[in-house]
Amino acid sequence: MDSPTPSASGAPDAAAVERALRLARLAATPLEGQRFAPEFERVLASFSELARIDVRGVEPLATPSARGDVLRDDLLRPSLEREQVLANAPQPVDGFFGVPKTVGGES
Amino acid sequence: MSHAGALARVEAALASATRVEAQLHAFLSLDPAGARRRAAELDAQSGPRGALHGLPFAVKANLCWSGVETNAGSALLAGYRAPYTATAVQRALDAGAVALGVTNMDEFGFGSSGENSAFGPAHNPWDLARTPGGSSSGAAAAVASGSVAFALGSDTGGSVRQPAALCGVSGFKPSYGRVSRYGLIAFASSLDCVGVLAPDVERVASVLGAISGADERDSTCLAEPPSAAPAPRSLQGVRIGAPREHFGAGVDPRVAACVRAALSELERLGAQVIEIDLPHTHAAIATYYVVASAEASSNLARYDGVRYGRRERGEGSLQSMITATRSSGFGAEARRRIALGSYVLSSGYYEAWYVQALKVRRLIARDFERAFERVDVIAGPTSPSLAFALGERSADPLAMYAGDALTTPASLAGLPALSTPCGLVRDGSSDLPVGLQWIGPHGADELVLALGAAWQRASAHHLARPALAQEVLR
């Protein structure tokens, strides 16, 4: 497990960038080479002014939505047909989404 | 507006779109056969006509349109055919509008120039070497070139308003929740709005009337009835707030002067212009990019090569397949934003970055609330710069982000905001449009549109068209 040092501002180190990429299931492409991390750090560093703003007593604003939680009745409704759903799948298998085998050896 | 038959209009629109497409690359696909068929059906109908009867329009590539490739400008979704139609698109169709094709855009809305489209950038009809803005690049170019009567776009941090400004058309981002997001490919759910681009505000208002209103498929969609065409109103006595921060550092002095001149015109028409302050404007870009990237990283987790889109095999394991698919399928800017979002949401950084940004977002919203105690509407430049050259900022993300300084505040606060053309500025050998942004209190969409329409009835800036345009719509 990584144990990052909480930082209110400033640039992240290379390990933190690496961790963010891993969490996002991304790898820097060879084309980008070594450019990705420094550029990422530069972008984040430019946002560091946020940490200097006095927000004492301010509630976070997660959404400007004027509606609170909206629930509908839990009723079964018509949905897309299985064929429609699978039509865009890169590898459908017998009416399901196919993925590489995760247990029991090679697929 | 003439009452030419729908088919005649669609033929003219198709001729125009086809004629300029090689120069503009506004469209990712056109559907001439479908458009002609639908237009012929409309012409054969008797009885009452929809509010948008026979109007040819274009659909941004992130709005689902059943059976049509809806790739959001991303290589990852190349070939994806939407199995259903977005509410906004369906309502436009139901009102009699005829969909002509799908417009080019920055991948998933990540960009302000169109250059992040996986299919090559669109070009500005006023100067083909320049950007039309973004991310609704093709939408703005198509409207400005006269190929369509209106275009549906999306605006997360300015993606309708900024291209509208740079292409000299009218573009509107409604109050958050005014138009259903059902069928809009998600970028940042607390910011995304379906918006409208058109040659003038009156057309924008009639389209908004057709597409807005409650939708049980979007729980954030407001229950208010669809907006009617706003009643004509005068500018007499209207209090217009001009934020000092929107004319300051980072704003091209020529843009600032052009917008100041427009405010003087509004004063002559009876409005009262009042200097105001929006003190947290300087923090809008940082706040926006933290919040929007966080939401994007979550929303775009769905592109894993399993259910739709392309797949790369990787080294054979499930995890390797997912990483390989995402790494090669997303463009550079998408990868940067997803990584940024993952970073600010990750353990150890969440409070310092994401929650801090949400608190600053509240301060930005409060700035507006306080301003609206003194003024009816706020006005300033839409974009701090004129349309810039393609390639000029593509290697520098911070230079690109800086262009969103004046549009992101209204997005963070969920406010209705309109860009209307307010003059041309000569730059090199080109005349380039400048946009005036009107921002209203939450829910005051009709007021903003009514004031924009009043201004256009009394001025001619919105009638300027690039030489490339052919008047096919009047």
Secondary structure topology:
The complex is a heterodimer of chains A (107) and B (474).
Chain A: H1 14-23, H2 36-46, H3 82-86, E1 92-93, E2 96-97
Antiparallel strand pairs in A: 1-2
Chain B: H1 6-24, E1 27-30, H2 32-44, E2 56-60, H3 87-94, E3 98-103, H4 137-144, E4 150-155, H5 161-167, E5 170-173, E6 193-198, H6 201-211, E7 239-243, H7 253-268, E8 272-276, H8 284-299, H9 318-329, H10 332-345, H11 350-371, E9 377-381, H12 397-402, H13 408-413, E10 417-427, E11 430-439, H14 445-457
Parallel strand pairs in B: 2-3, 2-4, 7-8, 7-9
Antiparallel strand pairs in B: 1-3, 4-6, 5-6, 5-10, 9-11, 10-11
Helix pairs in contact in B: 1-2, 4-5, 6-14, 8-10, 8-11
List its traits:
heterodimer; A: 107 residues; mainly alpha; two-stranded antiparallel sheet; 3 helices; 24% helix; disordered N terminus; B: 474 residues; alpha/beta; Amidase signature (AS) enzymes; 14 helices; 11 strands
Alpha plus pi helix count of chain A: 3
- What is the percent of helical residues of chain B? 25-40%
What is the count of β-strands of chain A?
2
Biggest interface goes to: A-B, 61 and 81 residues
Structural class of chain A: mainly alpha
Gross morphology of chain A is: flat
Rg of chain B, Å, rounded: 21 Å
Order of helices and strands of chain B: HEHEHEHEHEEHEHEHHHHEHHEEH
**What string, H for helix and E for strand, traces the elements of chain A in order?**
HHHEE
Regarding quaternary structure, how should these chains be classified? Answer: heterodimer
